[in-house]
## 1
Amino acid sequence: MTSSTLKLLIVCSLIVCSLAIATLDDIDRSDIPQIIESRGFICESHYIVTSDGYILGNYRIVNPLASKHFKEPLKPVIIQSGFLGSATDFIINAPTGQINEQILANYTDLDSVDFESEGQNLGFILANLGYDVWLTNPRGNYYSTNHTTLDPKEDGKQFWSFSLDEMALIDLPAMIDYVLNNTGQSSLAYIGYSRGSAIMFALLSEKPEYSDKISPFIAMAPPVFLNNEKSYYRALASSKFILNFIRDHPGSCFGRAITDIAGICNNFLIKPLCHQLEMSLLSIDRETSNATRINIYLSHLPAGAPCWDLIYFSQRITQENFTHIDLGPDFNMKRYGSKTPPMYNLRNIVNQDIYILHSTGDKRASPVDVQKLVDELEVFPADRITIEDEKFSHLDFFLDKNVAQRVNKPIAKILDRYRST
């Protein structure tokens, strides 16, 4: 058996096992509003209906103490998760993050804020610093699987026939316009992690006018190019048979429901294996993440995604260009009117407030591929922050034990420059 065949079998096993995985004992099934309110904030639930009928669940963290310290409207900030994630990713890293008026009162002096104890959850620290935080969920994850006319189970093939492209060109502008309309602001800050950053690069390529609405755009671990990606997903990228099967059978992959299934994984002998399989699927590193929170993470991750995203990211591994999803000549003709998918022209981007945050240890969005992204842009990023740590991996941007100092504080310092814009 060749090495590539073995890797492919491992990937297939993980996909199959995702249908029967349960986590260990400390399962937290709190939803986003419950988590937000447990810290003393108010949660507003906002359901955005897209032009093609998808209903997106979005959640606003309201700090009831902010009006005492801010006379002007708060700067709106959208935080967007990555593939297999949801908005919970930015509020579950630590049990801390309670509403804190002292942080709010000292928002102008970030060095006086104890990020180590209070800044582990990006959503909560930004709300405590006086930002109007919106946690958003694109179509296909646990919080955004509703539609005005389609049922995700009964109308599965039609419902799930989408990928990153629809998230970028339909969901994202709908979210941006909704937040701006509700806040009365002309621009907002956008923080995108992984796929959440890729969809913004796609949007700004196709609709450059949205650059005026984004100030700044913070891209964490952007997977726009994945030619140097190093994980078992590369084996999937080489299997045309499996990718064609996924194309012909669109559906949900790795939904949050997989951790609800009791079945075989409730057996005390099998639990450790199930646990390890899910850790491998998500590439969670015990050494860098908070070991006491692993079961909390696995209660919310994975949160589901369209299976077509597997095709999309496989193509980013094997193809040199940043394009729409390639579904083959026949599908492409129906979808695009051409046998090949159109490209996203990154040189169309005119936004000059782009910040890139990445790591030397990220095996998904590698430094080489991030550099390729920078080279493709016509505008030079306002700043590029590199975490020089070979152990700081892709998920560490929200799960690392030291995420407060390495990620969240630098983000807060960037946002501080844009409070009045």
Note: Residues 13-27, 257-265 have pLDDT under 50 and may be disordered.
## 2
Amino acid sequence: MCAMSQSTEPSSLLYSQSTSLAMRTTIQGLRMKFPSVKNVTTVTLQNWIDGGPTVPDSGASAESSRKENTKKLIIIDTRPELEYSVSHIAESINVNFETEDMDRVKKLMLQDINYDSPDDSPGVRVVLYCSVGYRSSVLADKLQQATKPDPAYKHWHFFNLEGSLFKWANENRPMVDQQGLPTDKIHPFNSLWGKLVDKHRWKSTP
């Protein structure tokens, strides 16, 4: 029994460390590929969802942190509907990253926070996620470009969720299925990228 335990634990630990290293490498690569897209950590997003304090940037004043906390929060899942139906962050809206209809996305965002126009709100945070962050960075970049010329969006801020839903799931953060019920399962995208999420969570159909 003892020998079996000793041989199993290092293997599990090695898998966990390998996954963590691969995730960090992926996050860094996406930051380089999308330099204009701001990122937010899973810890900070959880705090925003819970209504607690943000994790301020170095040098941020208490007043600026307080102002950040008054902003509305929109969460966008940029994966196809099948992946979204397996699991997603509660209250996130589903917008496929391939869409080019930014006017439709703007309307969906306003509906989500119950505003008629973007300048009705003093500030809005929009956090986008996918499996690891590529697709969400693509849509975040599109939204930044689409809203930049409009002064009504001056105080809107778009973020990619660092590590996206794979990192969120690996940290045992809450997700729901298509019925809105808690789940720990997640669509692996494919067998290659799925290596970045704990395999016992894999589920390819709702």
Note: Confidence is low (pLDDT under 50) at residues 1-15, 53-70.
